[in-house]
Records
---
Amino acid sequence: MSTTISNPTQAPQSARSSAVTKQMLKKSSAARRARSTRIKLWLGTILTLVVVVPIALANLLPIADPNMQDLGARRLAPLVDGHLFGTDQLGRDLLSRVLFGGQTSLMIGVLAVVVSGAIGVILGSIAGFYGKWADVIISRVLEAQMSLPLLMMLLLVVALFGPSIPVITGVIAIAQWPEVARLTRSLVLVEREKPYVDAAKTLGLPKLRILAQHVIPNVFKQASLVILLLLAQAVLLESALSFLGAGPQRPFSTWGRLISDGQDYITTSWWMVTLPGLFIVILVVGVNLLGDALRDGNLRRSSKKEGK
Amino acid sequence: MLTYLPKRIGQGLLTVFLTVSVVFLLIRMAPGDPAASFAGPLATNEQLAAVREQFGLDKPLLQQYVIFIGQLFTGHLGQSYSFQAPAVQVVMDRLPYTLTLATSSILLAALVAIPLGMWMARRSDTDAELGVNVLTIAGQSMPDFWTGIMLLTGFSVLIPLFPASGFTTWGGLVLPTITVAILQIALVSRMVKREMVTNFNAPYLNIARSRGVSERVLTWKYALGNAGIPVFTALGTRFAAMLNGVVVVEVVFGWPGVGSLIVRALETRDYPLIQATVLITALLAVVVQLLIDLAYPLLDPRVRLGKAASA
């Protein structure tokens, strides 16, 4: 109980040797919090790299072609015949399918985050900076979208425009922009009251230029912290769409599709569902941990600056 | 209060109306002909035309929309093409299943997440808390369909404790509930922790402690009392979102709810059924949201509806 409330142990100001030992300092809540953040940061980095590096290097690794069928080697268990992850119902190497599928999943995730980030930052800063009718319209659209049944709408739009990669990327981006926009808007609302904005206005700079050159760069760093969390969500959304059959179609084998294909063989071939799923979990946990640690660190720094 | 309630109801109805209108337009823009999927691959052009006329699909879009608005007021949204029954009836038959799953999941989430979050707040930044913290991050990082399949394999195939699909016995409720609740537990417990820590560090708590209020009262009455309000709102909002159908989990477990219904309706281009599902779930979500807002002043006497509630 007392751990969260007690003040961090403070060293006395006098020159004589302190009664506060190094161990006590280490145990102080501030030091421990910094330690948890550090651990999360490292764990997150390692987990993310474990998944991302093999995916990035998939073309160079000595693995089988992801689409090469070998009907004589159907549903081999992991580690049999040089198939690290086993094979699927058509004898295709599962590791290779997971890695190449991951390229598609990751690419969609990254693109979606870039697009939603751009839309969110632009619309959010317009709403925050100009206020009045711009704010009313953008905020209403935000609210309306947040009250819509999300997955249902995504399925609908994918059914409408066909499950191509640009459509799926766009759909995920549209699902995610409200989060960025809300955050940017609230940051800009604070930023526009700062003296330098008034100074720029007095100097006669056009409003758009103040926004684009001065305000947005100042809020960008804080707004960008949400990006990692969005990337995690985007990967999960894409896999859910793929699982429901609204993901990228052949020849792309994304993670959600691998799992939905493997579902039929779950009783006899556990690896076809388990291993692709573990890949998603490791990646998303890693990215989430990273995002969490960066946010913790940033919060502490900004609260120190403001002397809270 | 007197102006607040009508205003909120009006806003809610507007949201529902816009939602169903957007859906109305989107499904008609979509490729794929409901007449073709209804009449089958061997249908002649004459038969297709007859089917379109029967469904009213040969009329201009604007006229279809006017008819649809009229239907909204009568509450009769037409016959479902694939079920050959009134669409609203089909959705209402499925609704109790989704309601059951959503209720049991939110209850399980609240029962686990609130104590867990309080524990995390009290043990903040210890090694044990770090471990649980990482676990909650894992909980929000698992794709729910994957978790579902894993649980299904583990506890109904390998160890046959629970039925694998559908809802015939109460045992069938266990695995879907856990699957849905895992994500909610992860999110809500982190929120409880955040709120509790904020309250633990608030000046009012130090003053109360200096006046000799016991730690137990400080934790349970003071801190939890204040932290409870945003947590209650979050739980309510999540519950409202679940009423739109826990689509993926329902598909995995063959759960006969609204979520699996909408997937099927989209596949067969069953326009009335899609519209009815969206209308009913959107209405329900708005009502639940309104109830949460109305419950606010009961939990927090400082809140006056119509003034603070919009913040």
---
Amino acid sequence: MTDHDHSRTFQADHPEPTTDAARVGLALRELLIEAGHYTADEEQTVIAAMQGASPENGAKIVARAWTDAAYKERLIENGGEALREAGFDIAPYEFTVMENTDDIHNVIVCTLCSCYPRSLLGMSPAWYKSSSYRSRVVREPRKVLAEFGVKLNDDVDVRVHDSTAELRYMVLPQRPAGTDDWSEEKLAALVTRDSLIGTQRDLQT
Amino acid sequence: MTAPKFKAGQRVRIIDRTPPVHHRVPSYAKGQVGVIERVCGVHGEPEKFIRGDGKPAQRLYRVRIPQTELWDAYDGTESDLLEIEIFEHWLEPAQ
């Protein structure tokens, strides 16, 4: 692949497309660029920004909410504003934070496609995009959660949030016991990607 | 944009229809009755986009539906919930 032209692939380190669907996608992209809807450079900038996003961003938000009650209140009241306050932005989407408590467990899904706060948390996991997760977690959330290792008693309510339109969600997991004197940085290191989606409940210290 | 047609706590029915265009209402939610959980912002809704008519601004809501009302033989508690985003033109008042 010595004549490999980076402007002709989605991402420089991706192989050439081998399926019809991938070729159609590539052709569409070339037409859009040719017609001037956006440039290859702009596309690279967006890809780089998304690759720079990761669950660590969400973990920082969670740790701040755990250590600053007023911030947590703002985060739940108006997620977008609280996010900007912390230096992040997922506009034009609304950012919505659902707090886990002793009595409530939240889990996020997009049944129609695979909406996810990508520009904050990076790419979603493969299972989040699977038709199995998307169709089952709305219908039998407790069973799906148990498969992820989250066993809920009947005294905990499950709330499934179907991200069908313009809101993007993050779960605020519970702060583990015995971390009272921990720094924000140390707390953030406890937060996992799955706990931000709701397929993990208890964080390990 | 006009004021929201519905307010938090109000009972609504998600209209059961299937326009032959991309729309953001999954079939399991169509015809279901729920309660407005919160009034969200105004966003472009995508149904006219395919005809080149852009994305008209529409009020968005979150609707809360008990899981036991959504699914036959639901395996969970009476207070388990499903919450979903629905554009205003998909909602009508319910008893």
